[in-house]
DNA sequence: CCTTAATCCTGGAAGC
DNA sequence: TGCTTCCAGGATTAAG
């Protein structure tokens, strides 16, 4: 669900609340969302005992820092042990004060949906404070590692540069070697990490580039424009606390505000803020795509403009 | 290579 | 109101 600005907002709000605290206990309601990177990182590590898996989830350890690459987070201990967190589509990390009604982390018994539902892992920080990993759709997951190098070797090193630090040269190199639609290339985390459907559409509108333009035809100058606009849009979205479309909230339970600044995402059929013509909607790389056919330069790919 | 569709799931919204 | 259908911020895989 969350893209770079939402994940960065979670990183900041979470770090402010857990830095330096010790994990008193770990609850694993759904062990199948937890993977071990030193066991290949693929399937659930069935051999490890529950006690061992809780240790891997930092039981007894102190929280050193929280880092991010693209849409993924990592909670690290001072000695380099850690947990990588990918929120997927519906995942969230939330700091809760236990003892309050509905905050016991157990699935609620009523028919009313509750934020305590789908809490797969909970870190008890003592003092009545817990961090919950919730993920109703379970497209996300947790990956434990003993050394930070494992995280980079098996996961983050395979991603492209982060959207906030990628250079025009790097982006141009990535785009020039693929014969795909520009939008499909920008969604590819191996090329640039952190963009999802919302921010790619906003980025392409801001740079007046057509989503179906052939990625390899993007010039160095256009790559420079893309990088500048990417930093600006992602930066502003972070300032606004991310985009809340449905249920995204940060670690403090706060919704984002950037959705009111969207120019194209979710506005199909509504007038373009630039020229007034209705924004068009198509599907590219399996994703709903909204763009202005007038303002964004014509496609050089697959027929229609 | 590149594209699409299916897949993993739940739940909110829209349609009838 | 109630039931059904569609759709969704992601990422991988298989099929064409």
Low-confidence stretches: none
Q: How far is it from the N-terminal to the C-terminal residue, by CA?
A: 29 Å
Q: Percent of residues in helical segments? A: 10-25%
Give the overall average pLDDT: 91
Order of helices and strands: HEEHEEEEEEEHHHHHEE
Q: What is the percentage of strand-forming residues?
A: 15-25%
**Shape, please?**
globular
The major pleated sheet works out as: 5 strands, mixed
Number of E-type strands? 11
DSSP helical segment count: 7
List the topology elements.
Layout: H1 4-18, E1 25-28, E2 34-36, H2 50-56, E3 65-69, E4 72-76, E5 82-86, E6 92-97, E7 119-126, E8 129-134, E9 141-145, H3 148-154, H4 168-176, H5 182-187, H6 197-206, H7 220-239, E10 280-284, E11 287-291
Parallel strand pairs: 2-9
Antiparallel strand pairs: 1-7, 3-4, 4-5, 5-9, 6-8, 7-8, 10-11
Helix pairs in contact: 1-7, 4-7, 6-7
The protein binds a DNA duplex (16 and 16 nucleotides) through residues 1-3, 6, 71, 86-90, 113, 117-118, 135-140, 178-181, 184, 187, 189, 196-199, 243, 245-248, 283, 285-288, 302.
